[in-house]
Specification:
By secondary structure, the chain is α+β, with helices and mostly antiparallel strands. It is built from 17 helices and 19 strands. A hairpin with a 4-residue loop joins strand 5 and strand 6. The chain binds flavin-adenine dinucleotide.
């Protein structure tokens, strides 16, 4: 139920005093976008949405909510995929008499504070949109290594809190690996200023890593110092098609041997995924063999603008073809073609959202086991739910597979117990991943959607340690309740 319920006039008045009345949203219509997730699957509730403009304002809000015993949900671009930023969800994490949480959205804290091209670092407020950080780095001839489909709307604070991955992990690592320093408002309202830009700092525990992947449960990230990299000046993008995953894995391994760190992207898609994207973007043309069971988008980059990457790519593809590993391949001849290759990859989320009920998963297994995992997971899911089709998109170099059992809207509507079915399908896929030494969450986090899976699949000692950390930082458990822990 989407609704607002009053947290008490005095708290609302305090929040208005702190950020200004126009930046405390209470009207149901205004609050709506902040209490519903991007896919429109989860509808939470909030007492209000507060839009602070400074760290000091965040600290005052946190202290005021703590004093009133009202829970607080930090929020960025609200593009997360596990319901972690949806307030008041799940309902049983909130007592019926407690006021609904306050959403603290950081979109007004969007300043680039400092760019240091010599030290290769950028310091930004947590509400900066990812694409703006990428652009600021480029203006200083540097590159920020995180790239994902939601980059036009997700925020750096959200990226850090989810430890976001994306298409550049194979070369630059995930968001955690970009974080040099952080500023965080702790659950008691104290401000921890750890905005150091050092590459080497072994002075005790690396506290910044606690907040990477903490999903708003340990404090509010208000600013970050992030690693920058030299800007690539040469690109070569190719589209490969293959008969099976074993061949694609060999293509990946051969390419890595030949070009090392120049691989910037290696994304796998299956034919079903490509059919769906083409159905929803009819003017889209596949660069090579549309009938192939698998395709891969591969990109090489180099900081040397004179590097002959296309010649290198031609040589690699020649070798792979000669070894019988490829059905067909195409190299983008210019930047328009490169953009059209990427349009296929970036069209996936929207196409899948419109197409049906995709029970998206986010597993990772050791790279060498990706093929066996896909085979076993497909067999198990289709044996029990034959009406589903298996849609695959994978950051193959990271062993990260979005294994998506897709149901048509009609088939989904016909199922009697849909929530239970969704949980059962995901659990089946997670169990197969676990058998291969994998994880049920590679880059999206836990949120409330996967909180039960964390309890089920991780060793009790591991979850007990997590709870002790949570308890130590957030004694009253008012920071984003119901998330990570079930
Ligand atoms: C089209 C599309 C493509 C995507 N592709 C990828 C992908 O390739 N890889 C990937 O990893 N993810 C992907 N995502 C998921 C999503 O974009 C990421 O999880 C992103 O990092 C979330 O950022 P956000 O600002 O939207 O955070 P939100 O959704 O607002 O919040 C996510 C979590 O972070 C917490 N949080 C937000 N801001 C703060 C803060 N300042 N301090 C403390 N906690 C905070 C929230 O409480 C919540 O727990 C995709 C999403 C979409 C819609």
């Amino acid at each position: 139920v989407t609704e607002t319920s009053s947290p008490g006039d005095s708290l609302l008045q305090s929040l208005r005093d702190i950020v200004g009345a126009q930046y405390v949203l209470t009207d149901t219509h205004d609050v709506q976008p902040y209490v519903t997730d991007w896919r429109g699957r989860y509808h939470g509730k909030a007492s209000c949405v507060a839009l602070p403009q400074s760290t000091e304002e965040v600290a005052r809000i946190v202290r005021r909510c703590a004093a009133a015993g009202v829970s607080l949900v930090p929020q960025g671009g609200n593009t997360g995929l596990v319901g972690a930023a949806v307030p008041g969800y799940p309902q049983d994490a909130h007592s019926a008499s407690a006021p609904a949480p306050v959403v603290l959205n950081l979109r007004r804290m969007n300043r680039i504070l400092h760019v240091d091209p010599v030290g290769n670092a950028i310091t930004v407020e947590a509400g900066c949109i990812l694409a703006h950080v990428q652009n600021a780095a480029e203006r200083h001839d540097r590159y920020y290594g995180v790239s994902l489909g939601a980059e036009g709307s997700c925020q750096i604070g959200g990226n850090i809190a989810t430890n976001a991955g994306g298409t550049g992990v194979i070369k630059y690592g995930s968001t955690r690996e970009q974080v040099l320093g952080l500023e965080v408002v702790l659950p008691d309202g104290q401000i921890w200023n750890g905005l150091r830009s050092l590459r080497k700092d072994n002075a005790g525990y690396a506290l910044r890593h606690l907040f990477a992947g903490s999903e708003g449960t340990l404090g509010v990230i208000t600013a970050a110092t992030l690693k920058l990299h030299p800007r690539p000046r040469a690109w070569c993008t190719a589209w490969l098609t293959a008969d099976n995953i074993a061949h694609v894995l060999q293509c990946l391994a051969r390419t890595q041997s030949l070009v090392g760190e120049r691989i910037a992207t290696f994304e796998l898609l299956n034919r079903r995924q490509l059919e769906i994207v083409r159905h929803h973007i009819p003017d889209l043309r596949l660069p090579a063999d549309p009938e192939a069971p698998y395709a891969a988008l591969v990109e090489l980059t180099d900081t040397d603008g004179h590097a002959r990457l296309d010649a290198l790519m031609e040589r690699i593809l020649g070798e792979l073809l000669a070894a019988g590993l490829l059905r067909d391949a195409a190299i983008a001849a210019n930047s328009a073609q490169r953009a059209s290759f990427w349009r296929i990859r970036h069209g996936i989320s929207e196409a899948n959202r419109s197409h049906g009920m995709g029970l998206s998963t986010d597993v990772a297994v050791p790279v060498a086991h990706v093929g066996a995992f896909i085979e076993e997971a497909s067999a198990e899911v289709l044996a029990e739910w034959p009406q589903a089709s298996i849609v695959l998109v994978a950051h193959l170099g990271d062993g990260n597979v979005h294994f998506i059992p897709m149901f048509s809207h009609a088939d989904w509507a016909a199922l009697p117990k849909r929530e239970e079915t969704a949980d059962a399908v995901r659990a089946r896929v997670h169990d197969v991943a676990a058998r291969f030494g994998g994880t049920f969450s590679a880059e999206h986090g836990v949120g409330f959607v996967l909180a039960g899976e964390l309890a089920r699949l991780r060793a009790p000692l591991e979850t007990a340690l997590m709870r002790r950390i949570k308890q130590a930082l957030d004694e009253t458990w008012l920071q984003n309740p119901g998330k990570i822990f079930s």
